[in-house]
Structures are given as structure tokens and as C-alpha cells.
Amino acid sequence: MQSEIDFTTKSPVNIEKLSGQNRRLYDFLKLGNRINCFSDAMKELKIGYLNSRISDLKKLGVDIQKDWIVIDETHVKEYYL
């Protein structure tokens, strides 16, 4: 795992907001937590689009793991490090 990650984003829209979301998500996952699109953590971390943030982290070289889980008969991906 990388020790130092550059959380800047190439997106011209909401640059500060997106880099903050990426950092919060990375820090959350680094603690051994898991997250999915229905997690209460989404609200706590102020993340709008989980799949986009996961994609950003992968592009930065973070090795994101995933499992399929079932929530209320719906299959969703749960992400972790």
C-alpha cells in the first residue's frame, strides 16, 4: 500500500470537494472499514457517488478489494482495502 497519495483531481468541477471525498474515503478504508452504497458511512463521509470515488482511488494506485453482498434482496458491491 502506498504511504503517500496525491489526492488532487483532474476534474475541473468541485476540485476541492472531490479531493476531500477521496481522502475521507481512503482514510475510512485504511482503518479496516468496509463501505457500500447503502452504508451510513456514505452520509457521514459526505460522499455523493461511491463508485466515482472508488474509481478515483484505483487510478491513484490504491488496491481496492470488493465483495458482493445482499441488502434487502439487492446485490451490491462492498469495498475494502
Q: Calculate Rg over CA atoms.
A: 13 Å
**SSE arrangement, N to C:** HHHEE
Number of separate structural domains: 1
Q: Which regions contain 5 or more consecutive residues with pLDDT less than 50?
A: none
Q: Sum up the overall morphology in one term.
A: globular
**Shape-level CATH architecture:** Orthogonal Bundle
Kindly state the mean pLDDT as a whole number? 86
Tell me the helix content: 25-40%
Structural class based on helices, strands and sheet pairing: alpha+beta
Largest sheet descriptor: 2 strands, antiparallel
**Strand line-up in the sheet with most strands:** 1-2
- % residues in beta strands: 15-25%
What is the CATH first-level class name?
Answer: Mainly Alpha
CATH topology: Arc Repressor Mutant, subunit A
Cα distance, first to last residue?
Answer: 9 Å
Per DSSP, the total helix count is: 3
Instruction: Count the beta strands.
Output: 2
Write a structural description:
By secondary structure, this protein is an alpha+beta fold. It has one domain (15-80): Arc Repressor Mutant, subunit A (Orthogonal Bundle). The chain has three helices and two strands; from the N terminus they run αααββ. It has a two-stranded antiparallel ribbon. Strand 1 and strand 2 form a beta hairpin. Helix 1 (15-30) packs across helix 3.
